Amino acid sequence: MRQGLIIRSTGSWYDVREEPSGHIWQCRLKGVFKIKGLKVTNPIAVGDRVRYEIEDEVENTGTILEILPRENYMIRQSVHKTAHAHLLAANVDQAILIATLVFPRTSLGFIDRFLVTAESFRIPGVLVFNKQDLLSEDFVAFQQELIDLYESLGYRCLTTTAISGGGLEELRQLLRGKISLLSGHSGVGKSSLVNAIAPTLHLRTQEVSSFANKGVHTTTFAEMFELEAGTYLIDSPGIKELGLVEMKPNEISHYFPEMRDRLNECRFHDCLHVNEPGCAVKQAVEDGAIAMSRFESYLSMLGNQDNRR
């Protein structure tokens, strides 16, 4: 039995990079794999380490027999199957969200759900605001307010422009020596940024529709790329909506750092921070110590509402 790394998933077939030779085998999954009873549309994710056996050396095929224990994984609700989840990636060092304030617009609700999801799996979250060349002065000022907010909460923020190369060196340094999940809406420029950093990859890009102001999916399957020795990037398909998975209502506030710091100050230990008396979180919102946008995102998650707007 051999050991390898999942570097691409196409649904039923997986590209497995053999360790240590680096040879790529096309493998299928044997049997049914479950994650602690969690229903998933894809039992194996890019970044998983697996054990497999060779089926046919001429055809370059194999069978995956075992998924090795994960250090972590990032997951979201499946948009196709109710009550199912979809694995985005496994064994990552950081989760990077590429966001754009215009063309297309990434909502604050989506940004906050991404960060909450990363927090829930103890994965450091990073925000990269792309397409600086399209921002008006007002949007530049608004973006700086957002950066100040998220950096005050402990999240690293970068600004980039793939066309001019602005911020690319900082992004390279951020990625160096880590396994990074790159995510975001379609059209935010993920593939353009990767091509600018690693031109030899030649990832496919497509223009954003000016009619709908929405991106077109260019990444169909999650795939891992080695940018340099020890530096790996997982490019995931564009996400329209980021549904939270198996998160109880009284847990959500634990994944907002500014709320987590105040949970012991609420009068009731099971406070949901909605209409309970003596709520330290609501008081902090009224005092301006917690941003209203973040509190609104929290209420949206509590109500399981759409986060695309």
UniProtKB/TrEMBL annotation:
Its main location: cytoplasm. GO terms for biological process: ribosomal small subunit biogenesis. SUPFAM superfamilies: Nucleic acid-binding proteins, P-loop containing nucleoside triphosphate hydrolases. Keywords: Cytoplasm, GTP-binding, Hydrolase, Metal-binding, Nucleotide-binding, Ribosome biogenesis, RNA-binding, rRNA-binding, Zinc. Gene3D superfamilies: Nucleic acid-binding proteins (2.40.50.140), P-loop containing nucleotide triphosphate hydrolases (3.40.50.300), Probable gtpase engc, domain 3 (1.10.40.50). GTP binds at residues 130-133, 184-192. Its cofactor is Zn(2+). One of its GO terms (cellular component) is cytoplasm. It holds the Pfam family RsgA_N. The keyword Nucleotide-binding applies. Binds 1 zinc ion per subunit. Belongs to the TRAFAC class YlqF/YawG GTPase family. RsgA subfamily. This is Small ribosomal subunit biogenesis GTPase RsgA. It comes from Rhabdobacter roseus.
